Amino acid sequence: MKSPRSAARAVRSRERPATRWALLRLGPSVVLRAQVRVLYVGAGLLLLLALACVATLTAGRLGIGLADLPSALAGNATGVDAFVIDRLRGPRLVVAVAAGAAFGLSGALFQSVTRNPLGSPDVIGIAPGAGAGAALVALLFPGSVPVALGALLGAVAAMGVVYVSTGTGFRNPTRFVIAGVAVSAMANAFIQYIVYAIERDQATVLSAYLNGSLTARSWEDAATIGVVLLLCVPPAVLLSRPLGMAEMGETTAAALGAPARRTYTWAIVLSVALSAGAVTAAGPIAFIALTAPQIARRITRGTGPHLALSALMGALLLVVADLAAQHAPVFEDLPVGIWTMAIGGAYLGYLLSREWRKGAL
Amino acid sequence: MRVHSRARTAVIALGAVAVLVLVCFVSVMVGNKNIPPGEVWEAVLGRGDAYATVVVESRYPRTVLGLLVGAGLAVAGVLMQAVTRNPLAEPGLMGINTGAAASVVAASAFLGASGQMQLLLWALPGALLAGAFVHLLGGRGAGASPARLVLGGAVLTAVLSAFIQAVTLSSPRTFDSYRYWVVGALTGRNFEAVWTVLPLIAVGLVVALLLGRALDAMALGEDSAAALGASPARVRAVGLLTAVVLSAGATAAAGPIVFVGLAVPHLVRALVGIDMRRQVVFAALLGAVLLLLADVVGRVLVRPQELMVGVVTAFAGAPALLLAVRRMRATK
């Protein structure tokens, strides 16, 4: 039975004019077709992202003056400005943009497979798994095995456990959500044990990392996430169309020549790789992967996975959150993951109550 | 409904008590320095040599505390599952323990609270608020799905953990004591801790027993319960309040521990059926056994270090939850 409100919404959506398309001509032979609204939103997001980046570099006591910024970016900075852009905020900003994009993309891929806003890497326990893997490597083989490997293995292991224990793959939200809670509980207990077991100084550092922190990022971290993005973005772009087809239903997708099952497998593999890469570079920053695709989808009001917009939105969210973390008045220089966890948690609560009202869960 | 005969129940009860005594014995025996059983017995009777007596006696507080915490968490789980009619209700998963933790951390960081008694008092308001949140989520009729409570709890836990992390990372002193307390550990507790939580847990257990009849009536449905003279709203509120008090006491004593309140009630129902008063008694017994056992295992596994009891229960309990997910019938 439909409530009057949703009926009204249905009528309104029928009245809305059909999606307008635009053609982008790149040179004489390449023509891209895109939804006009998506283009506008994308341009808007890019602009906001650029503004946030400029703010990150210029704000605060050590900020580079707005007038000096172009030459500093061109590599002509000197003195304090050089330090700020080479060591302090440059790598941090690059990691924030790249990791945010990776989280957003990862969430968009995962959610389009589970067809549920709750089906995001955060809820499945990928991030705690990656954190546990990283912590284990940091404890057992300090220095010899890259932490990245631990994070990757942890993420894959956590997802494998969830996948196996649901028995139905990722199609039943109730099951994978509860399984995710169980896996997260285990991973978190493990992390807390390691934080307890190691020295206090190390524990503070590890604890900050495990919350997802962008302080003291190096160009190495930026390179890590850069490589992950380089490896994962092209297949994700190729996957965009099949994912859109898979949303129409498995039969339709198969008839169109893109079997949904294979598409889903690839999407999950890519999603885990992206999440693991982002966690490795920036720590398990909570809820970006959950919120970015949702917000992107709301703004465009369209169908389809909107991979590019989700990535942009993820980058924007993380850069803004990091900006807030750097300049927040009371809690100075907290790990950015704490901010995203608090705000994202509240958003998850809102999403939950909405899903319940719809009766989807 | 299976009928469980008195004789069978009596046998199970005897068995549970025997296991409990055995686990207590092992708990004072095993640790960084193992004491042979014979010497433990001598020490318990007060005739052992001085060294063994000191070692054994140093393990009394944590043993008693383990009993109290285990019993409290398990009974809290029984109450919550009965009140919310949700097989996944549990103080740990619902975020009640995290609520208690959050207010303890806030009190010790901002108000300079310290000492068992003060921390305990501060655990209560946090647990109560979290309990009220759960009540709002799950109290609205039987239509709520199990996932709903678990997810609500996960949200609450996420937001509260963010708060806890923010506070502990800003205050190194709090962080140092917190990182130790948060995993759920029984080490380094003295009898002062025992005396502080004993009244809370004792009162909670007694109220849970008294509520048994009314909760049995509730299990028949709200209308039948009202016809039998129980007021559903009041029973639900008192039941949840008792569960919150029990978990606040347990959390203040040993830190947030998950899954004991989830696993034990299911075990108990399989053993003695659904009679509430039996469930409460057996949950107290088995909860105590389980927690002590987890503590002992934690002492043995990574000697000479210790694995905290909260870590052990998480690793023992999470697979149980995963198994439950697998066996869940495909509901909506």
Automatic annotation (TrEMBL), chain A:
Stored Pfam families: FecCD (PF01032)
Membrane-spanning intervals of the chain: 38-59, 93-111, 123-141, 147-164, 176-198, 266-292, 304-324, 336-353
Alphabetized SUPFAM superfamilies for the sequence: ABC transporter involved in vitamin B12 uptake, BtuC
Subcellular location: Cell membrane
Gene3D superfamilies on file: ABC transporter involved in vitamin B12 uptake, BtuC
GO cellular component, one term: plasma membrane
UniProt entry keywords in alphabetical sequence: Cell membrane, Membrane, Transmembrane, Transmembrane helix, Transport
One GO MF term: transmembrane transporter activity
BP GO annotations: siderophore-iron import into cell
Superkingdom assignment: Bacteria
Keyword Acetylation listed: no
Family assignment from sequence similarity: Belongs to the binding-protein-dependent transport system permease family. FecCD subfamily.
Protein name: Iron ABC transporter permease
Organism in which the protein naturally occurs: Streptomyces ruber
TrEMBL record, chain B:
Membrane topology note: Multi-pass membrane protein
Subcellular location: Cell membrane
TM region(s), chain numbering: 12-31, 64-83, 95-113, 119-137, 149-171, 191-212, 280-301, 307-325
SUPFAM superfamilies: ABC transporter involved in vitamin B12 uptake, BtuC (SSF81345)
Domain of life: Bacteria
Record GO biological process: siderophore-iron import into cell
Cellular component aspect of the GO annotation: plasma membrane
Any one GO MF annotation of this record: transmembrane transporter activity
Major localisation: membrane
Annotated keywords: Cell membrane, Membrane, Transmembrane, Transmembrane helix, Transport
Signal peptide annotation: none
Presence of the UniProt keyword Hydrolase in the record: no
Family in the record: Belongs to the binding-protein-dependent transport system permease family. FecCD subfamily.
Protein name: Iron ABC transporter permease
Species annotation: Streptomyces ruber
Species classification: Bacteria, Bacillati, Actinomycetota, Actinomycetes, Kitasatosporales
